[in-house]
Teichoic acids export ATP-binding protein TagH (Halomonas lysinitropha), 413 residues
Amino acid sequence: MIRVHDLHKSFKLFSKPADRLLEAVTGRARHTPHHALRGISFEVREGEVLGVLGRNGAGKSTLLKLLTGVLVPDAGEMHIDGRVTGLLELGTGFNPELSGHDNITINGLMVGMSHAEIESRRQAIIEFSELGDYIHEPLRTYSSGMVMRLGFAVAIHADPSCFLVDEALSVGDGYFQQKCMKRIRQFKEAGGSILFVSHDLNAVKMLCDRAMVLESGRLTYDGDADDAVNYYNRIMARQAEEEEGRHRARQQGVYGSGEAEILRGEALGERSGAPVLGSGETLKVSLDLLAHQALDDLTLGLMIRDRYGQDIFGVNTHQLGQPLRLAAGEQRRVSLEIVADIAPGKYTLTLALHSSDHHLDDCFWWCDSYLQFEVAGFADLPFGGICRLPLTIELDPEIPQDATRSAHAPVIR
């Protein structure tokens, strides 16, 4: 259980090092206050995973450092049941001159483990980290991924009741990230509380029960993880427009600076003629665009998401080498055909109009879940998983007579 109420944290920013000394000597303020957290309140129940989203500088890492005791709050209350451990900034709590073996002891003591607990779990930590003989080498010789492996292994074996994960997890290789995610799910199923900070939006959707969004030190959203991701995308999409004072809301669920918009659209199966089609059938998307001013570099982007809000496929006309050009007041219909080789289920289409390759510089129009369609059954051969991948199978006519290996021996190429 994690309970936070009205948490505040500020830092003093000095323009040069000498100002710090002058302020201490003269007593006159020579700093600019930076409010990293402003009245944050939330709760994480047992067995719950809370995602934390926000732009760089929003206050995410400061929050985790307060919860782990690295920093002390200026005001507010924090209550945490049991031991709290976490994987914060890469290398936190480690001595680069000591071996990984010795750093297990140091880091274990820092997270509240006793010497007896460390010794009883040392071998399990080493095996989980998969560092092998490198465990006896100085930490300064480790790659960032190896440091992450050791840090996660120590933290998860400290038997915490609350686990905090920062962006450091992203530096590991794909295999070990999957291993960490599996262990996090096991920790959750055992009743542990997890605060998960990440820019990996799919991971937040799939792992978190709910998510909150921090903006300039304030809690601006706390709710469903999928809605939180959409809210965060909205912040990112309108960042440039807000800086220039050009952003304006146009209608419920739609946002952008308004130079162009999608007037209407439909997504229908080629054979079904309806928003329900079979897997493998072509999905025909028709959109009517309107430009309110001349645009020489207009990009149409789309993202298909499943019922969990997980991104399945996204692309835009700039990436396809087909940028659009519209005159002021011009309307144009754009038609797209997508072979829906995806698993049966319900899906949505998020659509956007922007410039160049992404929406971060100029987002003219954006709407989450603008269109919906459903894949029911298979129009072609069935498959398992999320999507069909191209597959080729070759069968040799016979096994050479001089083959000496067992028929069941693995083939290594």
